[in-house]
Amino acid sequence: MAVAARKAGRAGAGAANKTTPSKGSKNGATPNSPQFDKNQDLSAYNDMLLIRRFEEKSGQMYGMGLIGGFCHLYIGQEAVVIGMQMATREGDQVITGYRDHGHMLACGMDAKGVMAELTGRRGGLSKGKGGSMHMFSKEKHFYGGHGIVGAQVSLGTGIAFANHYRENGNVCLTYFGDGAANQGQVYESFNMAALWKLPVVYVIENNRYAMGTAVTRASAQTDFSKRGLSFGIPGEQVDGMDVRAVYAAGQRAIEHARTGKGPYILEMQTYRYRGHSMSDPAKYRTKDEVTRMREEYDPIEQVRRRLLESWKLSEDELKAIDSKVREIVNEAAEFATHDPEPDPSELYTDILL
Ligand SMILES: Cc1ncc(C[n+]2csc(CCOP(=O)(O)OP(=O)(O)O)c2C)c(N)n1
Ligand SMILES: [Mg+2]
Q: Would you state the CATH architecture of domain 2-340?
């Protein structure tokens, strides 16, 4: 998936780079949105749909009691991680918080391994001992999965330091939320990253809420693209519901970081449809607000419409894509339900004592 996305992404890089992203566009109707070619749209659709279906299934499995502990779904935010991943190249790293299933799938990590980790099974990516928030893949350059809000920002900056030290040309995409953006270590990291011109892109996923707290109630500066100004870190606000705008901004930011100019901040304006985690009283926003976002701004629906209207795909062709994606997710769920739990003798392996 991720490889397909990357290839498709590079194919149309020039065109997408020329335009600036728009804020709050409706269903791709924004005149300034950068364009995608058919392959890019197909690839983005496929990859976003995989995340959506995977997360829907995770929600169901949680409800059935198959998943224990915390579980944070990424539904609504798919365009952010897929657009960014399209702008990366092999070797670039990703690190994020606990809302991480989408990031892992975008990095090309196996759906079966992710789902089996959610259910705590032997075949899970952390051998069933990490759960939803703690998975890693050195092979796919994914560095977690972190439950401590904001902790991944200093870790991501450290990964960027390693890239700089080793002169390997890689960029670390460091994702965090609007709530995490108020943590102190974020600014210590910004300082060092700017001072040493580290190859890091800070992707702030502003989904408007930190648990039940709206951005406006918790943040003195709600324009997150400005959070690095005093360190001289450039930033942009991006329509995070439009995968094309994300990709174009991602290219600019990654190019900046890769060419030795230092860190870059992208504020992705996005929205989470589901609760913060699986237990969420949902009293902090109205149902109408969620419905309006789903109906008017859905990132997958925007691409679906382009596939139908601009690229003349038939409903049947779209159904076939959906079926394939569902098959992958169903297989993952099947595996995650029947794979055995770790042997008790594994209790003290792979852990720090
Ligand atoms: C250091 C720390 N403080 C508090 C928490 C509890 N907590 C978990 S998620 C969360 C909200 C973070 O919101 P945001 O950064 O906007 O990310 P989102 O959940 O919206 O993706 C909080 C306060 C925590 N896990 N770690
Ligand atoms: Mg948030």
A: 3-Layer(aba) Sandwich (3.40)
